[in-house]
Amino acid sequence: MRAFVRAVNALSVFFGMIAAALIGAAILIVCHMVFVRYVLNGSTAWQTDTVIFMLIAATLLGSAYVLRQGGHVTIDLAWEAAGQATRRFLRVMANIGTFLFATVLAVTGGHYFWQAWEGNWLSETVAEIPLWIPFLSMPVGFGLLALQALAQIIDTPRAVDVHGAAVHAAEELGEEQTAAIKEGH
Amino acid sequence: ETLRASHQWNTNDVRHKMVEIIKTEVEKADVGLNVRIYPSASLYKPKEQYAPLTTGQLDISAFPLAYAADRHPQFDATLMPGLVKNHDHAKRLNDSEFMQEIKQIINDSGVIVLADTWLAGGFASKENCILEPEDIEGQVSRAAGKAFEQMLVGAGASIASMPSSEIYTAMQTGVLDAANTSSGSFVSYRIYEQVKCLTAPGDHALWFMYEPILMSKKSFDALTEEQQEALMAAGQVSEEYFFEQAKKLDKTMVDTFKEAGVEVVTMNAEQAQMWRDIAQETSYAEFAKNVEGGQELIDKALAVE
Amino acid sequence: MAPETIGLLIALTLIGLMIIGVPVAFALGLTALIFLVAFEGTGALPGVAETFFAGLGEFSLLSIPMFIVMGAAVAASPAGRDLYEALDRWLNRVPGGLVISNIGACTIFSALSGSSPATCAAIGKMGIPEMRNRGYPDGVATGAIAAGGTLGILVPPSITMIVYGIATETSIGRLFIAGILPGLMLAGLFIAWSLFFAWWNGYKLTGLRNFSWRERFSVLPRVLPFIAIIVGILYVLYGGVATPSEAAGVGALFCILLAIIIYGLWRPSHIWRILSTSMNESVMILMIIGASALFSFTLSWLFVTQSIAEAIVAADLNRWVLMGVINVFLLVAGLFLPPVAVILMTTPILLPIVTQAGFDPYWFAVVLTINMEIGLITPPVGLNLYVINGIVPEVSLRTILLGSLPYMLCMVTGIILLCIFPEIATWLPNQMMGAAIR
Ligand code: NA
Ligand code: NA
Question: Which Pfam families match (chain C) (predicted)?
């Protein structure tokens, strides 16, 4: 069980890094587009689609990592009022909710990806990007989100300690990085 | 039983009226059918409507067929430069082998056509009148559709892609010199305030777009024969209504632009042919290369007198 | 079942899921799935992936992560401190100059960042301890920054305005311009209140320092480049030279470059920190956007949206009563939900009603945004309060909350002023872009 939780955490971090890199790359592509359009007065055809798809992929692939960091906005009314036992219950229920949503989207997203792959769908602009590439981020991203929710359910007794505080998996991250993430909220 | 109809236009648009005619006609027929219209993209986004039609989740919709070209690349032929010359030509095209083939693809994917409609459009520029390909050389232009982008690049224009709703601001700020869109959009987005010259459809138009009213085959097959007949009849009424309206849209555009002091011109047969020659090497060639049976489709369309 | 009843059940389910702690994004998505399956069976499921994906596939949306990166790059550097220092050195002789410096720095930083918590954190880290040191009451020190930070979503660029623009098909550039004067007006109200409060309670503002002209000028080189970026972006957006997404991309790159050049944040770990912080925030926002697409689809499919709208229209309220009711509704929604979720869920219903009643959609965007600002400094989802609490843990959340309360009233005053003088929001866009095309 521990091994499963660790493996999922590691996967989430890995895809979180990919997501951050995608955002960085998207910025460079937009700048390239601006340069070509306004400085060289040339045609820009492939950049828009590419950047949109990259940012959608970043959102989906990074979602599990953000869940792990507690970065998705949550209303913590009940959590604040609850004692330790209730907090464990809440944490399990909340993650079941996330798990259900993520699983349905992973499966339907997988189906969508498969249709695009089978039918060789292309994006409509001149870029003609094969649509299975961006669609692939749905089963992967939501699949990972479902796994992360599952890992958090399993990890609940350890995560909600005697004081009832939620311990984010900080020990597995560098301290600096954790601080940076906290500053971000 | 209630059928769901979705489209992207506001309730003043002629295309909303078409769907509304289907609703009133079907309900008048008193065959136990109701239609609930979701206008202004309040249910599905414009390009999202084809998939639910094929699965039967959505019953009726109306949108440019080229929106579904990511699934069926042949549909790009219905937004191809120079294939349709004018509204009467479009009507003849509906019964041609070309459209039969397109409709076969539509049917095979689980969708049927209730009404055929073609919309015309034109070009407008802040610089000069666009008649021959060399007129647009060096201008930054917005084109409606991939095939048009390819042809304009072939003519020496630069392309800036944007929705038609952004043309006005782009022209105002100098991002855009010229634009190509439908007659209706030219008027509703008040492009006449920005441009010097308009190229109206006339008898030798370049820009025509197929925008049928579609129905899910799954939903259709689930109806009684009586209900199916009522729907088809309603589609016919709607189609005839639109044929008149489409010409009116062009006339309104010409009148509005003239009133605003914009020069209005139309292409003659030779000028249209010059564009078609460029399309031959750009959009037609790309289409033939990338789409199975693409060349045959274009040939069939060009063969319609 | 009547659509109104379904709507009530949907609301209860959504609230229930959020109360047990399902993140807002997934609670929206799960509620949509539950009701789709309940009324349509599993046959409706294949479409949800496409709806979710299409909800994110908008060109304008891609400016959101880029504006966030812009803010994060500046926030990762001590630029917030410098900005505040600069204003302080120049304004320290002015009575209450410190408050003016802080709220002014918030306003300027808002123009670099589309988000409120980022603004709050960047200025608060330096400004709050300094205000407390110099004798300002804790409530004013924290409240001024919590409120000043909310300007992040009103002063352009604004993520809230981007989402509104997409949801209502209005011009994002025009929305941005509409936010400028109201943003300055709110900043003015915040300053006025802070000074009045300190004066009324006879606080001795200690620790005034004199700065030489040399000191004043020496801090400028570090600040001017960021000001130049702001001016550049404003020019690009309002001159209509490029789209918001393009401006955001270039702005983000410039801000990263400035952080590297001026503050020496060149190590990969620095860049990584900027990108990962931005990734966290933009994933959070974009997930809500995708899930909201699913949620709105379900509401529309079950005819809930349309029925509610029809009911409001049928009630045939006086237009100002209507606007009052809408404001209360938005305010309550904003207490519980992040701005992006509120906008995506409510504007499809509200905008047609509001415009039909003769209100300007750009004016309404500003009023809506100020309502959302109030939500940012009220529990339970008061992001800014938590940011401040993180900066000065020794000040209790209660003090921060009470300190923010008067600023909330400033915002309500702002809304009232906008109702009396709608030109505050509409004049500048009309001047710069001509009358709106509807
Ligand atoms: Na801002
Ligand atoms: Na709140």
Answer: DctM (PF06808)
